Amino acid sequence: MTALGVGILGLGNVGAGTVRLLGERRERIEARLGVAPTIRRILVRDRERERAVEVAPELLTTDIDEVLGDPEIAIVVELMGGVEPARSYILAALRAGKHVVTANKAVLAERGAEIFAEAARVGRAVVFEGSVAGGIPLLRSLREGLASDRITGLCGIVNGTSNYILDAMTRTGAGFADALAGAQAAGYAEADPSLDVGGGDAAHKLALLALVAFGVQVDPGTIATEGISHVTAFDIRAAAELGFVIKSLAIGQRDEHGVGLRVHPTLVPRDHVLAGVQGAFNAVLVQSDALGPSLYYGRGAGMMPTAVAVVSDILEVARDILAGLYSRPGPSGHVPSTTSKPVSLRPLAEVVCAHYLRFRAPHVPGVLGRVAACLGRHGVSIRRMAQETPSADGSAAMVMLTEPVADGSLAAALVEAALPVTRLRLLAE
User: Fold this and answer.
1) Digits of tens for pLDDT over the chain (429 positions)?
2) Which residues form a coiled coil (predicted)?
3) Is 86 inside a domain boundary?
């Protein structure tokens, strides 16, 4: 059978899983594809470091030119993470005539326009299924399974660390700090978890989902993003009493007014399909005109789940190489000249949804009346209100649910009220 050379950049967890799958599934891949993807070089920082998978020493190199200069390597698999040097290596690989498979959400979200433009110029592929939801075939479903449909919205859990923490808080009653420590001990959170719990990781993934689902290029820095560190055990309990579960959601919507993207903790009705997503699992609910709602659920990270997506991308590119399809459609299924149009997002201030408000009312006459008056002046109606037992100083935590209102109107009301308020959005009904 014909051999097809593969070069791998990075041999961390996902790289090790990719090497393992290509070895363990070699016969099955050959039977289905008629070609044997063969690893020829693996770029590493340290050749002597202990690995999670056994690799022949002669495959390891610290010199990128040994990968890019090998004429037998047709596909370069970038699994280094981060923006640099990954961006430079991807561009160099394309210019050397290689196709690229990557699971690097950061480099594509931040420098994707440059990378996809170069891929279109040289007629090479860039595929990235593993960059968004681990082993879930989400991007392929959006790009191919829904190619005949028009996607109007998506909403989901795309960061397993945040979901693990919020799920632990829900199940055990723990506070955020204790739940985070538990996630770190279990290996689900990094020593520096800020990218996950701050929402940045989910914003990167949402930018790529918007690219594939809506065909638009978005700077992830412009996506309205809120983390979960301000969610307290009290909020979890209050939400449960009101019939909700708190989840960190990535939400994208497209209508006649444009595209809106946001990441934030959200009150989800207890009977909603996303409310039952536990632990570090991911799930994305997609809405399209013809099909309606469809759900994509599974392990969103980890060595082997992500390696499944990476190897599937390698096989997809290999099929195109064998078929002579050296120029591919762009990432959203459009031709390269019309793919990833830069857009300005709809302002968060225009988003209309109900809100959860939590604040501590001091033991001062007229406080609640003043808050209610501020809300009323900005068109905010209260649907429901609850109060905990007052503390020794007479103050009490107050919880309000509003009727749906424009985000900007509520923000203006809270500024006028001049009280520290924790605000969480409700999933649109």
Assistant:
1) 457 999 999 999 999 999 999 999 999 999 888 888 999 999 999 988 888 899 999 999 999 999 999 999 999 999 999 999 999 999 999 999 999 999 999 999 999 999 999 999 999 999 999 999 999 999 999 999 999 999 999 999 999 999 999 999 999 999 999 999 999 999 899 999 999 999 999 999 999 999 999 999 899 999 999 999 999 999 999 999 999 999 999 999 998 888 999 999 999 999 999 999 999 999 999 999 999 999 999 998 889 999 999 999 999 999 988 888 765 556 655 444 444 556 778 999 999 999 999 988 776 667 777 888 899 999 999 999 887 766 666 677 889 999 999 999 999 999 998 888 999 999 986
2) none
3) yes
Task: Let me know whether 161 and 222 are in one domain.
Answer: yes
**Helix residue ranges, H only, 11-149:** 13-24, 26-33, 64-68, 86-95, 105-122, 138-140
Residue 205 is a catalytic residue = yes
- Are both 50 and 121 inside the same structural domain? yes
Do residue 287 and residue 146 come from a single domain?
A: yes
Which position among 98, 105, 205, 247 bears the catalytic label? 205
Residue 343 domain-assigned (yes or no): no
CATH number at residue 332: 3.40.50.720
Which structural domain, as residue segments, surrounds residue 413?
Answer: 349-426
DSSP H helical ranges for 364-406: 367-377
User: How many secondary structure helices (H) and strands (E) does the chain include?
Assistant: 14, 20
State how far the Cα of 60 lies from the Cα of 46, in Å rounded to an integer.
Answer: 9
User: Where do we find the tokens 């690893």?
Assistant: 39
Please check whether residue 344 lies inside any domain of the structure: no
